[in-house]
Write a structure and sequence with these properties.
Radius of gyration: 20 Å
Strand order of the largest sheet: 1-2
CATH topology of the largest domain: Rna Polymerase Sigma Factor, Chain: A
Order of helices and strands: HHHHEEHHHH
Strand content: under 5%
Largest sheet: 2 strands, antiparallel
Number of helices: 8
Low-confidence stretches: 92-98
Amino acid sequence: MENLTDEVLVQKILRRDFYALEKLFQRYERSFYNLAYRYTGDHYAADDLASEIFLRIYRYLPSFKSNSGPFRNWAMKVGANCCLDWVKDIKILRYKDIRLTRTNEDGEEIELEIEDKKTNIEKDYEKKEMERRVEVEMLKLPEKYRLAIYFYFWEDLSYDQIAKLTDLPLNTVRTHIKRGKERLEKVLGEIV
C-alpha cells in the first residue's frame, strides 16, 4: 500500500477499504495540520480543524474525479475551503480564554500551571521565538495572502498549482505571494 498512488487509494476507499483510508490520511496528516495551524495559530484548534478537513474529504471523496487533476490538489483545495469556513465561523464565535483554576482553603481561586515536561525551554527558546514571530505575523496577513504564502512556502507548490487550487488567475497568485512576502519582510526583516 505504501507505493500506491493517491488516486489508487481513493478507488480502494470508495470500495470500503478502510486500510487504504488510513494510509491516505497518514500521507496528508502533517500537511493538513500545518495548513490548519497557519489559520488558527493554536495547536488544539489546528488539531480540530485538521480532523474537520479529513471528515470533509471523506464525505466528498465520491465527488473526486481523477481526470480533473491530482488528488493532492483536490484535497488541498478542500482543506483550504475548510480553513476559510473556519475563519468565517470564528469571526462570529470568538474563542474565550480558558483558564484552569481551583479554589484553595481560603476560598480564593488559584490559576493552575501545567508543566510541559517534553520541552526544554532554554534549548528551544530562540527557535520557538522566531517561529512564534513568523506565526503571529502570518496571522496578521489578509486571508488571501496567508493562503498563497502557506501553499508556496510550506507546501512547496508552484504558482500554477496555487492558481488551480484557489481558482485565481496566475498573476493574482503572484501578486498575493509578493505582497505577503513584502509585508512579512517589513516586520520580520532578516528572518524571512
